[in-house]
Amino acid sequence: MADEVLSQSEIDALLSALSSGEMDANQLKEEEKEKKVRVYDFKRALRFSKDQIRSISRIHENYARMLTTYFSAQLRTYVHISVASVDQIPYEEFIRSIPTMTVLNVFSVAPLDGRIIFEINPNIAYAMLDRTLGGKGSSLNKIESLTEIESTLMSNLFEKSLDNLQDAWSSVAEIDPVLEEFEVNPQFLQLVSPNETVVVVSLNTTIGDTSGMINICIPHVVLEPIIPRLSVHYWMQNEGQKERKHGEYELLTENLEGTVLDLKVILGKTNITVNDFLNIEKGHVLHLNQAINEALTMESADEMIYLVQPGKSRNKVAVQIIAEKEGGNQDDE
């Protein structure tokens, strides 16, 4: 039984009853000592902790932002998607809660077992389809008479967004979502047993002037292998310690090695008046503050990085690095 939160008026009434003697404080203490019985419904088994539900919500908040960006670019209209709720309920209850005819995309998420369902409200699905075909994004619910072309276009639209789902879950597990089935009647989908616990993520979705819901149904069997990773402890432990993807380090190194870096060698510096500067001619000599036997400095982005000495290489003016800047992390050359 959840703790009840009293309003200010209820608190005032309780204090008044205690002060007037209508209610005995000792009696309240005795009632608190009595064993509390909490009703547990085995048909609504709670298999996820609040901490894990919060983690799933955080993942899909990130996913919702990615979907907003993706569909805004694809449909070229106003799109806003946000997480409305994250609940754990029996699979049978989820099936009863969605329309009898709706748009259902079923995805596998290898290497995890089982499949997940994307239920898209027909109003939203048709608004997306209308925009894809060049319309204004108006909604027309004719879910019972979908043509094969319309079904394919709807499936392709969400299939291309699977990279976003993969990225959103990458902090917890590397998954490879693949569209396996398109259906309009939820009664034909029996992913798990009716009493199996599923997590339902409901997304508030607005496409132009049309609003509706997108529901993501994730069975417990899918998340079971990675449940320990859904804790705050795991997230904090792995923050900043994520392994780079295969080949990412090599690609980064290759790109850095090809970067062009501007270097300049400072022969010396001097101060002159503006009048002298305006009257400089060929043959004039400027006295620099650099002694002939002192090392020159090599700079990049106006920061000294090496000490060098001038010379020639293959009959061309060159410099030789003789020391690095004090405190640098490069090997001396």
**Helical content class:** 25-40%
Series of H and E elements: HHHEHEEHHHEEEHHHEHEEE
The biggest beta sheet reads: 6 strands, antiparallel
- Fill in the CATH topology of the largest domain: Chemotaxis protein chec
Based on CA atoms alone, the radius of gyration comes out at 34 Å
Structural class: alpha+beta
Report the top-level CATH class of the largest domain. Alpha Beta
Reported CATH architecture of the largest domain: 3-Layer(aba) Sandwich
CATH homologous superfamily caption of the largest domain:
CheC-like
Strand order of the largest sheet: 1-5-6-3-2-4
Tell me what portion of residues adopts beta-strand conformation.
Answer: 15-25%
GO biological process, one term: bacterial-type flagellum-dependent swarming motility
Pfam families: FliM (PF02154), FliMN_C (PF01052)
Protein name: Flagellar motor switch protein FliM
Family: Belongs to the FliM family.
